[in-house]
Amino acid sequence: MADIPPPSAPITHRRVLAISIPIVLSNATVPILGTVDTAVVGQMGEAVPIGAVGIGAIILSALYWVFGFLRMGTTGLTSQAHGAGQTGEVAAMLTRALMIGLAGGIAVIALQSLLFRGAFLVSPASAEVEALARDYMQIRVWSAPAIIALYGVTGWLIAQERTTAVLVQQVAMNGINILLDLWFVLGLDWGVTGVAWATFIAEWSGLLLGLWLCRAAFRVPAWRDWPRVFHAPRLREMIAVNRDILLRSLMLQGIFVSFLFIGGDFGDVTLAANQVLLQFLHITAYALDGFAFAAEALVGQAFGRGDRARLRRGALLACLWGGIITLGLCAVFAVFGRTIIDLMTTAEGVREAARVYLVYMVFAPALGLASWMLDGIFIGATRARDMRNMMAISLVIYIMSVVTLVPLLGNHGLWLSLLISFVARGITLGLRYPSLERSVASSI
Fold first, then answer.
1. pTM of the full predicted structure?
2. In terms of domains, do 174 and 299 share one?
3. pLDDT tier at 441 (50, 70, 90 boundaries)?
4. Which of 186, 208, 230 corresponds to the end of one domain?
């Protein structure tokens, strides 16, 4: 616990960066694993295994993504308890998060047949690819409890600014996965099932390492103080926060899914170009996550202490560094955007189409900054209802933009609609920020 800054420690630029940089580095490891998975099955010399691993991983990621609320809700509630000096509640929050994660994973295992059938109805594949993908998923699904519980572990660590531990856990899990990929597929010739077993072992190993990194909590009797763990008001609060974050996330996902579906109406080349350009948004999200997470931890702790001045300073410093990174991303996309596109695809038609819409990616980080950072601030304050309601307003604005602009401007109108939804989220959450600050002042 010595590496956890006390909630009363000054909020400095160094402290913000100490939270943020490990998350940025951790995020940078995520694409590496997918690349290795694809590369090792690619050595088999057939297209079917590559497609099977790709679609299987996408389906499972989509299923697990539903439980992303556990990471955010755990961060907000734990950071507030930490800020208030409630050591017992901090330990109890970890137990609750683990129980929800394990229960969610068991539910996914129990419903796997139905879930996989539905996924293939939405995303059909050839019989060969689907058969191999099912083999892959039927192995990996057994690590669902581990990967979902890890959302809770990650949120718990972030709440206490232990992002270096998050980085260690992520690098170790991905490293184990990569080494086992190479051994099982290239050494033992297990093919697609080898990739699945490598990931299965890595995910359970990641959870065990995560629990070891959280070992200080298990030295506090409160982690198994069942009356505290199942305290009705605390449980109701956790359920309400997680429910609203889930609804908000589903609406956000609805925007991106509809964006892809609508883009498909403009032909395969435009659809592919849009997919390439969405990677610019993923890069932006990976880079800004660290600073949004810093806002979650610092705002949550200040909220728990009932200290409005600390909340404002934590929010401002996190946003300042997020803004600096955003300006850098805008510049990189403006100068090197064409080169990035060329690295992502060799199809000349897709390259040309992507360059036409590249201008939207140059401005996207700046237009989306407020929404990303305010998400972090509101998560820390557990103002999930505001997040849900402002997301609903933004979704309506997005739909109105699509209906109005797409018939007039085609794919340009679609991109404008997406960016308008970013701005709408930022403005609507920004309008709710004064209320958030007043609620802190009233709790002192």
1. 0.92
2. no
3. low
4. 230
Q: What one-character DSSP code corresponds to residue 4?
A: S
Question: Percent of the chain, pLDDT > 90?
Answer: 73
DSSP states of 306-364 as a string? T-HHHHHHHHHHHHHHHHHHHHHHHHHHHHHHHHHHHHH---HHHHHHHHHTHHHHHHH
Judge whether 424 and 394 are in contact, CB under 8 Å: yes
Domain coverage including residue 118 = 7-230
- Rounded Cα distance between 223 and 363, Å, is 46
pLDDT digits (tens, 9 = 90+) for 77-110: 999 999 999 999 999 999 999 999 999 999 999 9
**Token pair 């990569």 in the structure block, residue:** 178
Q: Mention every residue, 6+ apart, whose C-beta is less than 8 A from residue 329.
A: 283, 284, 287, 365
Answer yes or no: do 267 and 326 share one domain.
yes
Query: In this model, does residue 36 exceed pLDDT 80?
Result: no
Of residues 375, 363, 379, the one with CA closest to residue 418: 363
Q: Do 357 and 419 fall into the same domain? A: yes
Q: How long a stretch of residues is the chain?
A: 444
Closest CA to 390 of 430, 440, 438: 430
Q: How far apart are CA 421 and CA 399, in angstroms?
A: 9
**Residue 80 and residue 17 share a domain:** yes
Which one, of 354, 338, 367, 373, lies nearest residue 278 by Cα?
354
Question: What letter would DSSP give residue 383?
Answer: -
Type of residue at 94:
L
Residue 253 maps to a domain? yes
Q: How many separate domains does the chain show?
A: 2
Dihedral sign, Cα of residue 122, residue 123, residue 125, residue 130: negative
- With beta carbons less than 8 A apart as the criterion, state whether 192 and 41 touch: yes
Tell me whether residue 345 is exposed, middle or buried, using C-beta atoms within 10 angstroms of its C-beta: 0 to 12, 13 to 18, 19 or more: middle
Q: How many CB atoms lie within 10 A of CB 401?
A: 19
255 shares a domain with 166: no
